[in-house]
Amino acid sequence: MTKEEIVEHLMKKAGYNSRRQFAEAIGIPPTTLNSMLTRGLGKASIDNVLKVCKGLGITVEELEEMESNGRLSPSRDRAKPHSIKLELPLYGSIAAGALSTVDPITKDNVEYIALPKHMLGKYADSKDLFALRVNGESMNKVIPNGSYVACKPIDTIDELKEDDIVIFSHDNEYSMKRFRKDEENRLLIFSPESTFKKYHDIVVPYDTVNDLKIYAKVIWYAVLLD
């Protein structure tokens, strides 16, 4: 069931006899509401989508959840009003370029970002995720400069799969790269994926891994396009 069909259903359930009646109740032109429900909410302004959701007593996230789950009503836990979101601490920025020092963070200046749980898949109920802002171009074919990434901490290299994107430090400096293991030559390889040719693999021999720490793997990212 589409978002538009869910909205139509909730309008009728709330006692509105027509689109016009609902549009007038929430303060938008009837022609605008008709266009939203005909052409799709995805083409409407966020302000108008918020007005529609508010008029129906739901949030935008709940509407997305209802569409995803094929439900006609939000699955709310009144004791946990924020259960459809997960708040991640934002630990500064990480270099997607040459190794660099991570932005300093203290308990007093940690910010949080809230992500809808349905966007995190199997990690939706993880309690240890954190977020970083990407600063650099060495992974721009996959994760553009300025993106926000959600990360899952790891304890050992054995938790990684080939080609995972990881947050790591080498000689106490930090970076984000694609992870590969060359067992034949006993090497750990951290590769850029960039439109710029100046970036190169960071290669760490097995016998120098004491200088290496892999903190987390990237499980999600988002970027502002403008």
From TrEMBL:
Q: Name one GO molecular function term.
A: DNA binding
What are the HTH cro/C1-type domain coordinates in residue numbering? Answer: 18-63
Where does the signal peptide begin and end? none
InterPro entries in the record, alphabetically?
A: Cro/C1-type_HTH, Lambda_DNA-bd_dom_sf, LexA-like, LexA/Signal_pep-like_sf, Peptidase_S24_S26A/B/C
Alphabetically sorted, this entry's keywords are: DNA-binding, Plasmid, Transcription, Transcription regulation
Indicate what this protein is called per its UniProt record. Answer: HTH cro/C1-type domain-containing protein
Q: Which organism is this protein's natural source?
A: Geobacillus subterraneus
